[in-house]
Specification:
The chain has helices at 24-37, 73-77, 122-126, 152-157, 176-201; strands spanning 13-14, 17-18, 60-63, 83-92, 102-113, 132-135, 149-150. The protein is α+β, with helices and mostly antiparallel strands.
């Protein structure tokens, strides 16, 4: 029977990992517990002291009513069907003589049932007109589950708690909308400056009281100036 040579002895590791001793996992867990026990306990005295929430906290959904066009995308894409929208159509008069009348949707009701909402944020992502925003507000508990359906007035109040968007990365590419607006403003400013320069260089026309020197014309010999020829 062949015997293993000294160069091919079984390794003390399994799959490249060193063998663990019995109770090593328990010792590591107790070490974490001991380190935590030696630290000072910090308790936030809520509600006297408000917690510092991350900027992207998903608290409630705020409604910017002026941007809503009642396209119903948020209500159709909601997986919980917790968004309720009512609207009606109004006929707008023609903007120019001879034009045709136009109809637009007018928002009557926009409500969200937060008892059903799963805070997935799909409604905010699919809104094409930026009418819905995340607010870090979380103090909206109610004693009755039916009172968790908040109407558009409450959703509009939560818009005041929406934080400002984070600043852009200095090395990021400029958004196309901002670049187009900036180029349009620069072009308009250049055209206005050129028009002002052209107006400053143009010769001034003589006024009614400043007609310039008069040319008396050729004089006839022997005739006084201004007399009959």
């Amino acid at each position: 029977m062949p015997t293993a040579s000294p160069d091919h002895r079984p390794s003390s590791t399994t799959s490249g990992r060193p063998r663990s001793f019995p109770g090593s996992g328990l010792a590591k867990g107790l070490a974490v517990t001991l380190r935590t026990m030696t630290k000072k306990t910090v308790t936030a005295q809520y509600p006297d002291k408000q917690p510092e929430l991350p900027p992207r906290t998903r608290g409630v959904i705020g409604l910017f009513e002026e941007n809503c066009t009642v396209c119903m995308l948020c209500a159709r894409e909601c997986p919980d069907w917790c968004i309720y929208i009512d609207s009606h159509k109004e006929t707008m008069p023609a903007a120019t003589p001879g034009g045709r009348e136009r109809s637009r949707n007018v928002l009557d009701r926009f409500a969200i049932d937060f008892a059903l909402c799963m805070y997935c944020g799909i409604c905010i992502e699919v809104c094409p007109f930026d009418a819905l925003f995340w607010s870090p507000e979380f103090e909206y508990a109610e004693t009755d589950i039916h009172e968790l359906t908040h109407e558009r007035d409450k959703l509009r109040e939560w818009m005041w708690t929406v934080p400002e968007p984070p600043a852009l990365d200095p090395g990021a590419e400029e958004p196309k909308e901002i670049a187009a607006a900036r180029k349009a403003m620069e072009k308009q400013a250049a055209a206005q400056a050129a028009a002002e320069a052209a107006a400053a260089q143009a010769p001034q026309a003589p006024g009614p009281g400043n007609s310039g020197p008069r040319n008396p014309g050729p004089q006839v010999p022997g005739t006084p100036e201004g007399g009959p020829a």
